[in-house]
Automatic annotation (TrEMBL):
Family: Belongs to the cytochrome P450 family.
Name of this protein: Cytochrome P450
Keywords from the UniProt entry: Heme, Iron, Membrane, Metal-binding, Monooxygenase, Oxidoreductase, Transmembrane, Transmembrane helix
Domain of life: Eukaryota
Pfam families: p450 (PF00067)
Residues engaged in binding heme: 468
Alphabetical list of PANTHER family matching this protein: CYTOCHROME P450, CYTOCHROME P450 MONOOXYGENASE AN1598-RELATED
Signal peptide extent: none
Keyword Metal-binding: yes
Length: 524
């Protein structure tokens, strides 16, 4: 190339280097200076950190526990393949996160990063989170009036999926069955009858699509499939740089297909509601269903050309939250009930007394103090993740001990290590089903130790302003599910097997996916 041509090319390259890459390098360097001030669990070198990141995938709990003991009440960082995460512990630092403004530490940004929500659930659910106040307010407030729907679907779902007899034991594959039951029960409450014909069908309403499992499974499986596809899709997308993610999401994940199927099922229902509004000239038309679609339409207000797709995305996101956590917690509770059958009778007596007094109502659920304790204890011991209260620093954040977490960093609490810390509860690793109900009997403690209450040592539901808005619905649904099991079945493990080992991938937890539990219908 002639020197007369080469010189301008080099000049342009130099300008690009100075104006684009150099500022990015300076920003990265400043960020790393702040991160380097935080101690590392594992290797911190540019290349050696990848070795520690690989080890973290299989030994995350051990590494976090080591850091928790080595830096009590402090912070340490963990190398991942694509970033550094900061893990904290101790009441002061947990309280710092709890009190932090979402403009400083954002749950939404952290969730979006981990789940890659812009591609798995739609950018719209990150930009405008109006579904959160819907879950926090109308969805929760409707529980007393809509509890009969929840109860009716619990009965119908178990009759379909666990048709056990008094004369013999029935083996039930636990996690897969529970996901079906939780999906159907939740969606009976979310979209009701007759809408659940096309989204979460009732046992008495057939759907015209058949699978190997039989009829009436398409919409139910749709929610579960979307939940699984979203998790797998998020994990897949994390491996690719930002400019490739739109392409990867379309061709290497199942999320687009799940979204299209969901809109095919739920879209006509939303359009029917919108047509009713036009027909009556108001959003408050006669006999309007009291369900999630209605609450979302009321909250969003504006009716634009994308409203159908937008509402579908929100319903799927609420389903994701409901199915994922509730299924894991309920599966674990069944495992503990089967492993410790002696606790069934005191729980059964409490449930029977509450139902006899108040019927199957939300008020009756509030009377089930021992059951609340049992469910919290199983969640305490098993957890749903190795870390909790996960946030992303949107700008540099300084903890009360002076630790500075630079903008763009994920920060979380060492929740599993916290739950097993004897400084908070006696014998934390020993199963004590009535640990929390006994504590509630002490003066002034009647509300403090409820499963859904704020507890600095129990961070499964998070903390602060982003604390799980659906936890009250989830806890009442869990009580309705477990109460039905206690009064309807005997459960045990074949040959008195203990609780099956869970699976961990990094800090992501799952109950044993292949374990079976024996069910037998109780003689009335």
């Amino acid at each position: 190339m002639p020197s007369s041509v080469l010189s301008p090319v080099l000049a342009v390259g130099a300008v690009l280097l100075v104006t684009y890459f150099f500022p990015k390098y300076i920003c990265w360097r400043n960020r790393m200076v702040k991160l380097n001030a935080i101690p590392t669990m594992g290797n911190s070198g540019l290349f050696s950190s990848y070795i520690s990141a690989q080890r973290y995938k299989d030994h995350a709990l051990e590494i976090i526990q080591e850091g928790y003991c080595k830096y009590p009440g402090g912070a340490f960082k963990i190398p991942l393949l694509d970033r550094w995460d900061v893990i904290v512990s101790g009441e002061k630092m947990i309280d710092d996160i709890r009190k932090a403004s979402p403009l400083d530490l954002s749950f939404i940004a952290a969730f979006s990063e981990d789940m890659q929500t812009d591609y798995t659930m739609g950018k719209v659910v990150r930009v405008n989170t109006y579904h959160v106040p819907v879950v926090r307010s109308p969805l929760t407030r409707a529980l007393p009036a809509r509890f009969h729907d929840l109860r009716d679907e619990v009965v119908a779902s178990f009759a379909d999926f666990v048709p056990a007899k008094e004369s013999e034991w029935m083996k039930v594959p636990m996690l897969s069955t529970i996901m079906q039951i939780v999906s159907r029960t939740s969606n009976r409450y979310f979209v009701g009858l007759p809408l659940c014909m096309s989204f979460a069908c009732h046992s008495s309403i057939p759907i015209d699509v058949k699978t190997k499992a039989g009829t009436r499974t398409t919409s139910r499986n749709l929610n579960i499939t979307f939940t699984v596809d979203a998790v797998i899709g998020g994990t897949t997308l994390q491996r690719y740089p930002g400019f490739l993610k739109p392409i990867v999401s379309q061709f290497l994940t199942n999320v687009p297909a799940s979204l299209a199927r969901a809109e095919g099922h739920l879209g006509p229902l939303i359009r029917e509601r919108l047509a009713k509004e036009k027909e009556h000239g108001t959003s408050d038309w006669p006999d309007k269903p009291n369900d999630l679609v209605t609450w979302l339409l009321e909250e969003v207000g504006e009716r634009n050309e994308n409203i159908v797709s937008d509402i579908v995305h929100r319903v799927l996101l609420v389903n994701f939250a409901a199915i994922h956590t509730t299924s894991m917690t309920f599966t674990n509770s069944i495992y503990y009930l089967a492993a410790y059958p002696q606790i069934a009778e005191p729980l059964r007596e409490e449930v029977s007394a509450a139902i006899e007094e108040l019927g199957w109502t939300k008020a009756a659920m509030s009377k089930m103090v021992k059951l609340d304790s049992f469910l919290k204890e199983t969640q305490w011991l098993s957890g749903v993740n190795g870390v909790g209260m996960t946030r992303m620093a949107l700008r540099d954040f300084t903890f009360s001990d002076g630790t500075v977490v630079p903008a763009g960093t994920i920060v979380a609490v060492a929740s599993q290590a916290l739950h097993y810390d004897g400084a908070y509860y006696e014998d934390p690793e020993t199963f004590k089903p009535f640990r929390f109900s006994n504590l509630r009997e002490q003066e002034g403690e009647s509300l403090k130790h409820q499963m859904a209450a704020v507890d600095p040592a129990f961070v499964v539901f998070g903390g602060g302003r982003p604390m799980c808005p659906g936890r009250f619905f989830a806890v009442n649904e869990l009580k309705a599910l477990m109460g039905h099991v206690l009064l309807t079945y005997d459960v045990e493990f074949e040959n008195n097997k203990g609780i099956p080992p869970p699976s961990w991938h990094g800090v992501a937890y799952s109950p044993n996916r292949s374990a079976e539990v024996m069910f037998r219908k109780r003689a009335v």
